[in-house]
Design brief:
The protein is of the alpha/beta class. It contains 20 helices and 18 strands. Helix 13 packs parallel to helix 14 and helix 15 crosses helix 20.
């Protein structure tokens, strides 16, 4: 906190110095003193930056920004450059989460991985050792395709709730779909069922104040995650809760790519058809998914429910295969590590679908090496994205991937929003994390990693169906794109670190 106050003072001094030097007629000596003061602050900042031991090119980049962009460079560094210090910003949550998941881990036994095949065991051993959560056996998963099927199932399960409903969303809109779910939640509260609802303050900015008040007056306990009014200066504005979680009675859980809004039903005329994937699960893994919600809930409002057996009891079912719930965020390891491990363990095929494909160097290297070894690598992205930067930043990675023999497909039927990785047809990831830097480093995410479950075959079948609505990018054709297109790609790639 002391460092934050000092940085705030530095910002005031720098702005004041810049104003006095460029916009006033004070004596030259005073202007010189202002410039010296500005220089001292920049040198102090550069020295602090060097002590952080970042990569050499990253350190040099920020030094150039601080030196050659007066005033603006320092402000931009405080807002974006110090995202490197994300562990400091969420230190309390990291410590609390580690302790809480440790409690769960002591209650659960590590499954027997000896019966898995080589690539499944390769990933399972890694995941079990590095994550705070345990792999679950007694769990069933069912894949939900697109918005209509997903929200029909969500409404059906909400209507069956007998005890409590816990809901956490990145985007929850006050449109027709949002109001329908709000009415269901209010009806359940009136019947004596506890409802807790958490929404991201930025992602759900279109959730109206009147709907929030309506839920509060009905008895729904509702809280925003990292409210905007507290976010800009302490640098938490850029870190968002991208999770989509519903837990009902501790028996049923939902997670995946779908937020709440009519566009996810394909009813937005500007967007058109929306292709997405969600999953409903029952059994032991619901307890782990619920723990992710409860720890987020404690962080935003202080209510401690994690150790309450009423909310954390395990309800196993007869399952097939392994299900591992993995939550990542600024306070924990990156989801990219898990994706890298999956890719590295592949022996036959790697199929990826992501709406935002801005991979880091490690992921790109792993994909290229896999392709060189003869592994079939397929990447599916939208033909048209919902933003200029994401559209062209994604395309900027095509050349190096195509040169490695990787197959790239662009989905033409509508907007592709599902977030899927399938390895060798029997190992899969599905959840909220995109294949981009924001999901890797800035967002709170949660994914399911499935090993040998029947639901993987549904993911495989859906992927093959989606290929019929794709255009394959051919290297010769792509290389003929004009200078303007390449310029757009190069420009957008500059912002990859925050996309």
């Amino acid at each position: 906190m002391k460092k934050r106050r000092m940085e705030f003072v530095f910002v005031i001094i720098i702005i004041a110095s810049g104003y006095l030097v460029f916009f006033t007629n004070i004596p030259l000596l005073w202007k010189a003193l202002c410039m010296v003061l500005y220089g001292v602050i920049i040198l102090i900042t550069i020295f602090s930056l060097m002590l952080e031991n970042r990569s050499a090119h990253n350190t040099l980049l920020w030094i150039y920004v601080l030196l050659f962009l007066p005033v603006f460079g320092y402000s931009f560094y405080l807002y974006s450059g110090q995202l490197f210090l994300k562990g400091y910003l969420f230190k309390s949550k990291r410590i609390n989460d580690r302790e809480a998941f440790g409690i769960i881990g002591k209650k659960e036994k590590t499954p027997d991985f000896s019966k898995l095949n080589d690539h499944q065991r390769c990933f399972a051993l890694y995941s079990d050792r590095v994550t705070l959560t345990k792999t679950n056996i007694n769990t069933q998963t069912h894949i939900l395709k697109n918005g209509e099927e997903t929200f029909q199932e969500i409404k059906r399960k909400l209507a069956e709730a007998k005890d409590f409903i816990h809901m956490e969303y990145y985007t929850f809109r006050s449109d027709r779909l949002g109001k329908e779910l709000i009415d269901i939640l209010i009806d359940k509260v009136e019947k004596g069922i506890a409802v807790r609802f958490m929404y991201d303050a930025v992602g759900s900015i279109s959730l109206s104040g009147s709907d929030i008040k309506k839920m509060e007056e009905a008895g729904i306990v509702i809280h925003p995650f990292l409210p905007i009014k507290h976010g800009f200066y302490n640098q938490k504005f850029n870190f968002r809760n991208h999770r989509k979680i519903i837990v009902i009675d501790g028996k049923v859980g939902f997670v995946g790519g779908l937020n709440v809004g009519v566009e996810y039903l394909g009813e937005d005329e500007d967007i058109g058809f929306w292709r997405d994937t969600h999953v409903v699960l029952e059994g032991e893994a619901v307890q782990t998914l619920h723990a992710v919600f409860l720890l987020d809930w404690e962080y935003v409002c202080g209510e401690m429910l994690f150790e309450d057996e009423h909310y954390m009891k395990s309800i196993p079912v007869d399952g097939n295969g392994l299900v591992h719930v993995v939550s990542t965020g600024p306070e924990t390891q990156d989801m990219s590590d898990h994706f890298y491990a999956m890719i590295s363990c592949a022996t036959k095929s790697i199929w990826i679908a992501s709406p935002y494909f801005v991979p880091n160097q490690a992921i790109r290297t792993a994909l290229r090496i896999a392709a060189y070894k003869g592994v079939q690598v397929r990447i599916m992205v939208p033909e048209i994205n919902d933003g200029f930067l994401t559209q062209y930043a994604t395309r900027s990675y095509f050349p190096e991937l195509l040169r490695s023999g990787i197959e790239i497909y662009t989905y033409k039927k509508g907007f592709l929003h599902k977030k899927i990785i399938i390895v060798d047809g029997d190992l899969a990831s599905i959840g909220t994390a995109n294949m981009d830097m924001r999901s890797f480093h800035l967002n709170f995410e949660v994914n399911l990693f499935l090993t040998g479950t029947d639901s993987i075959q549904d993911l495989v079948a859906h992927y093959e169906e989606d290929l019929q609505d794709c255009r394959r990018i051919r290297p010769v054709e792509f290389y003929k794109r004009g200078v303007l297109e390449r310029s757009k790609e190069s420009f957008a790639r500059l912002f990859s670190g925050v996309l």
